[in-house]
């Protein structure tokens, strides 16, 4: 899968490619036994993912910080299909308190949990700290999802045991994981303002999404848990993600318009990895345009993944003590 396939939409070995939409990649799949959480499901790729999972009869929980957008997303889904099962719960990934409250709210619903889509994200933000004192792109894109996933794992494991259905976790990463700090993750200064680059901090958080998926995948395999964990690059899609770089992204899109996808195409890889039966048992992999790809050498570094896991635990613990 190279630039030629991206531009022409030529399908790869999976039979799908860059032009495939989320509806096409899930055609004929019955997900009525499945409950899925989609973070950031109120807009962009997350909304389309939630819409298509609901279309395939999954029970979808939209986890969002902007409740107006999330309720509007729910209204639109129900407008299309009055029988769709969609709920909305408040989640701010920038706040560990909010993440814990979300998990309590979800557990209180007494639903199973088969699929977790760690989709929410922010990009190219000026230097800023989260409520818990962590650099905001790392906090939102990686650390928040790290904590959320850990808190939901027991529920996912219990669901697979009872239902026999394979659990799936999908992390939304990006090709931008290639553009990070030279050491990959700034272990010695994750919150340093000195040397901060909005672009590299985004790349670092997206590298963290892949490392998180591969380390969690290894751990779950060792336990024998019936849960896969993979990461995806959705493609280049004009969404609200570009709010901090709106003008430069518009110009870039004009110059490189053949490389861009629309939102239905942008949600295809997530939906493929979340639902497609051909990926049964496939774990710890990285996907692009609905096909498996090799991520960067840093993203394949198991030592780095383990180190990030330990750092993430330390940071979550330190925030919990405050
Ligand atoms: N679009 C692309 O070209 C592209 C390329 C590569 C990877 N990605 C990845 O794809 C994912 C989805 O991006 P998108 O393009 O669909 O962008 P988007 O339309 O901006 O959607 C991102 C969603 O995340 C939510 N979010 C942001 N911060 C949050 C927080 N602290 N707590 C809870 N939710 C939060 C946003 O909510 P608000 O509306 O409240 O901000 C929004 O609903 C991201 O992880 C992104 O890194 C996108």
From TrEMBL:
Superkingdom classification of source: Eukaryota
Family: Belongs to the short-chain dehydrogenases/reductases (SDR) family.
Name of the protein in question: Short-chain dehydrogenase TIC 32, chloroplastic
Organism: Eucalyptus globulus
């Amino acid at each position: 899968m190279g630039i030629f396939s991206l531009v022409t939409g030529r399908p790869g070995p999976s039979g799908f490619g860059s032009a495939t939409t989320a509806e096409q990649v899930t055609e004929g799949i019955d997900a009525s036994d499945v409950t899925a959480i989609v973070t950031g499901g109120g807009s962009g790729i997350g909304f389309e993912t939630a819409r298509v999972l609901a279309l395939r009869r999954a029970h979808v929980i939209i986890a969002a910080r902007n409740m107006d957008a999330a309720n509007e997303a729910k209204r639109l889904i129900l407008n299309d299909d009055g029988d769709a099962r969609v709920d909305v719960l408040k989640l701010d990934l920038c706040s560990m308190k909010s993440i814990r409250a979300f998990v309590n709210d979800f557990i209180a619903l007494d639903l199973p949990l088969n699929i977790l889509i760690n989709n929410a994200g922010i990009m190219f933000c000026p230097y800023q700290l989260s409520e818990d004192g962590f650099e905001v792109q790392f906090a939102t894109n990686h650390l928040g999802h790290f904590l959320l996933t850990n808190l939901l794992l027991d529920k996912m494991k219990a669901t697979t045991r009872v239902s026999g259905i394979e659990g799936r976790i999908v992390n939304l990463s990006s090709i931008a994981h290639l553009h990070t700090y030279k050491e990959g993750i700034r272990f010695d200064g994750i919150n340093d303002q000195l040397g901060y680059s909005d672009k590299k901090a985004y790349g670092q958080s997206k590298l963290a999404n892949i490392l998180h998926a591969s380390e969690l995948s290894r751990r779950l395999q060792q336990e024998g848990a019936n849960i896969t964990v993979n990461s995806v690059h959705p493609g280049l899609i004009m969404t609200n993600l570009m709010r901090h770089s709106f003008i430069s992204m518009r110009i870039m899109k004009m110059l490189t318009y053949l490389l861009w996808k629309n939102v239905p195409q942008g949600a295809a890889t997530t939906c493929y990895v979340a639902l497609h039966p051909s990926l049964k048992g496939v774990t710890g992999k990285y996907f692009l345009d609905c096909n498996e790809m090799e991520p960067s050498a840093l993203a394949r570094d198991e030592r780095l993944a383990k180190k990030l896991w330990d750092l993430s635990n330390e940071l979550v613990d330190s925030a919990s003590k405050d």
